[in-house]
Automatic annotation (TrEMBL):
<dbReference type="GO" id="GO:0046872">
    <property type="term" value="F:metal ion binding"/>
</dbReference>
<dbReference type="InterPro" id="IPR058240">
    <property type="entry name" value="rSAM_sf"/>
</dbReference>
<keyword id="KW-0408">Iron</keyword>
<keyword id="KW-0479">Metal-binding</keyword>
<dbReference type="GO" id="GO:0051536">
    <property type="term" value="F:iron-sulfur cluster binding"/>
</dbReference>
<keyword id="KW-0411">Iron-sulfur</keyword>
<dbReference type="InterPro" id="IPR040086">
    <property type="entry name" value="MJ0683-like"/>
</dbReference>
<protein>
    <recommendedName>
        <fullName>DNA repair photolyase</fullName>
    </recommendedName>
</protein>
Amino acid sequence: MDNNELLVQYEKRRIFIDIAFKGCGSGCVYCYSDSSSDKQSLISLYHVDKLCQSVLEKLDDSIYYIISFCPNTEPFKSDESCNLIIRIIKKLRHKKVAFQIATKEFIPLNVLKTLNELSRFKNQIFINISMPYLETKIIEPHAGTCEERIRNIQNIKDFSNLSSCLYIKPYNSFVKNNIDKYIKLIREEKPDYVCVGMKFEEKLTSNSTCRTMYTKEIAEKTISKNDFIGILKIKEELEKEGVLVYFASTCFIVNCLMIECEQELYKYKPEFCQKCVIRRIGDEKEY
C-alpha cells in the first residue's frame, strides 16, 4: 500500500484527505483515531503534490465531488498544517469540487482570508466548527477552547465565500442534557447551519474511520432507537431558532450546490431526510 492509499479514501462522490501519517494532537477521548494524542506527523510538500496528482487523475469531470479534510487529524493545528490544507485546495479548486473542513482549533484570520480568496464561488468551502461539548478541558484536552471556536463562527461571517457549520457530533449525553446552552449559542452566533451527528457505539477495528457510517450493516449497528428519537427532538428544538439543521455534514452542501446525494445511512432511515430538496438515488420520493 503506498502513501496515497493511507492518506486518501474514496467513497462514491466523497473524498477524504488526511495531511498527517499519524497523530492529531487534540487528544479527544471519544476519537476513533488510535493516535489522537500524538503530535502530528505531517506529510511533506512532495507528498501533497503527489497526492493531488493522484486525486486529479481519478476525478470524473461529469461528477461533483465533496472533498473532506481531515478524518484522522486536525487541519488547523499549526501553521504548517494550515499551509498544507491551502496547498491542496489551490491544486484542486478548479475542478467540480466543494471542500469541507472540520476543526476544533482557532483559525487565524489570514488563513480565513486566503480560503475566501481561493473559493471560486460562495459555498465552495464549508468550515465545520466542532463543538460536541461546551466544557472541553478533560474531554478534548489539547484542542482549541470553545471560546476560540465560537470566534471562528463570528469571523467567518466577514468572508462572503465561506460558510460555517456548528458541528455537534458525536451526539452524546452532554448535548442531550444541555440543549438550552446550544440554543443560546445558536441564537447569539447564528452559524449558517447546524449538524447534529451520530454517535458510534463502538469502534469496530483499531483502524476504523468515518467511512464506516456509509454501509447498511454499520448503520444498523451504530444508531440506537433512543439516539434516533433524541436527535430528532434536538433537531426540532434547534429549528425553532430559524437555523437549518441536518444530520450529516454533507446535507447542507448538496442542497446548496444541488448535487445528487448518496448518503447510504439515510437510505435505510429515511426519517432523517427532512426538508431536503435533493432526490435520493433509487428513490422516487423527495424530502
